[in-house]
């Protein structure tokens, strides 16, 4: 299985041959830790490129992409190493070549493997750099992945099947199959094997299994398929991938050449480069000025540029928008944003914006202009003085929510993963299950945890990545808990995950078997409770007048022109019939905001009385609760009491928004999954403004929307904030590589991965 030809070695610019054949079994007897770096301009950071360039001795192997006739050795130039292209049979044995490469690595050399990736639209030469893992750590090189073990076998050996080969590789790597993702693919040539290897390294660096391609897919030990979305792992545990390669042939004479090869890869500390937020299919053009006439002139300039085809044309690249970002003035009094999915659409958006800018209602009467694509402008920006983060309640999470977000913000996910159990925070086993119906069947506690996790994630994204600083915060129902958990108040917000998951309050008292309701209604153990809630378009006063007739029905929530009634399903339906209204059943079992919930008020208060961070009381944010008019005092007892009061009492969301507006809230940004509260706030605010001329204009913006692309929704949110002149960082938009690069520690553990 050893290659007959030696690898070519470059030593101080000279070509020489130096690797002797070595049995693979000898290699596997030693602890193996080969650092692997993706050799391309996007993923190889300047520091790594500089360090790798200092290696005086290196091996360079060019892998042939052909799978037919044996190839010949290419003659090197005076300054290039000899490029060796293995024959067709040799091309099937990646492990044999790695066995030889290990010898060079043990000699302190750098090995570069070059091959063509046929999966790309235009096949490009790709590279992998291999070196000793301990030496990489000493050089402060952050590897994208590590090769920890490999094995191979065919019908002429003692290894009888692919599973045995995989187990041998895992044993050599000292890794447990239970903590390993297995991926099997057909690789008939060495080039195909190296493409699979690069995909495996990329998957680990990107923390997503999506880059892996093959005929049999990806299966974990619990037989769940997670080919999309973030690759979740247990906290402080490295991801492990067992790459199983099978070489098949239809020739009977070559049957003994049917190789099974397995490589065990573990994650490194270097993250894959983030995807660009702005690209040719997601255009974003910010334009600022001192007055509307100047805005019109600049949009006209853009239109002329687009019409003439100069600078922006069919082979457009997102980098061509950079001058517009550089010209943008964050301190200018006015700004607009153009968004589009193509150059042609951008022309249409720009022309629509010109029409809007010349419209009297927008120019002089301050109407806000916004297109479905996301382009927007307002002549009277609200600024950030009344910038308020709004946290949605239970029930907003949905299957596969923002499952590609990590590809654009890998450093943020890296940070959250180190701070707590990201998988538990988002309830990934339910939200990202192969069956989308799984998310719909989540319990109240699971929905509560996942909802807080989504809000926590978006809070960190807005405040840390885009440097947006809210002045106020409030929550819808359980959103109050998400507010305290997300805005650096609670000392250990992640500790609430397990507590909520095992809480009698969420699992039994006000959900599940509804023990609090059973006590309140004085039911026997064998008497069933059929609970439901209904959204109805009705005035709260109409409902309140009828409640004495229906003691087991409750007005749970008042929200603008709609209300939520909850309780005994039969009683609720009877109340609706008396009202002459139709209700929309929520089919959710929760007694929050009803009288029976008061029986667990003390338990809820104790549950949410949490230790605070040292600097929490110095927070510049004003926290507003539905339970009181004045802002909540930032101390453990006051916070616990406010959450319990909100949790157990009927929720008047209309009054909460009115109160926040009276305190100066103007720009409401919904922080979390979907857009539960944004439409409600707009309705409530407009109704309130029509009743009193003293109230200033308000606006509500969501940063996520179910059914829409997560990045596009985020950009639409940012565009509106820009149009309202809210200070924020545009660096992630124009410098994605530097803005989202993984924070590299100055001290690298020899292991190079989580403990």
Q: What is the share of helical residues?
A: 25-40%
Give the radius of gyration: 30 Å
Percent of sequence in beta strands: 15-25%
Main pleated-sheet profile: 11 strands, mixed
Number of H/I helices: 28
Number of strands: 25
List low-pLDDT spans. 1-28, 66-91, 216-227, 737-755
Structural class: alpha/beta
The coarse silhouette is globular
First and last CA, distance: 35 Å
- Biggest sheet strand line-up: 2-1-4-5-6-3-7-11-10-8-9
* Mean pLDDT across every amino acid position: 85
Question: What do these coordinates show?
Answer:
This protein is α/β, with parallel strands linked by helices and 755 residues long. The chain is built from 28 helices and 25 strands. Strands 2-1-4-5-6-3-7-11-10-8-9 form an 11-stranded mixed beta sheet. Strand 14 and strand 15 form a beta hairpin.
Features:
disordered C terminus; 17% strand; alpha/beta; five-stranded parallel β-sheet; 28 helices; disordered N terminus; 34% helix
What is the topological layout?
Blueprint: E1 8-11, E2 14-17, H1 24-28, E3 34-38, H2 46-52, E4 57-62, H3 94-106, E5 110-117, E6 124-132, H4 133-138, E7 145-153, H5 162-173, E8 181-186, H6 190-206, E9 218-219, E10 240-246, E11 260-267, E12 283-289, H7 292-308, H8 322-327, E13 334-340, H9 343-357, H10 360-363, E14 369-370, E15 376-377, E16 387-391, H11 410-419, H12 422-426, H13 428-431, H14 437-440, H15 444-465, E17 472-475, H16 479-486, H17 495-501, H18 504-509, H19 515-521, E18 531-536, H20 540-546, E19 553-559, E20 562-568, H21 569-579, E21 583-585, H22 601-607, E22 622-624, H23 636-648, E23 651-652, H24 653-662, E24 667-670, H25 678-691, E25 699-702, H26 710-723, H27 731-734, H28 736-739
Helix pairs in contact: 7-9, 15-16, 15-17, 22-23, 24-25
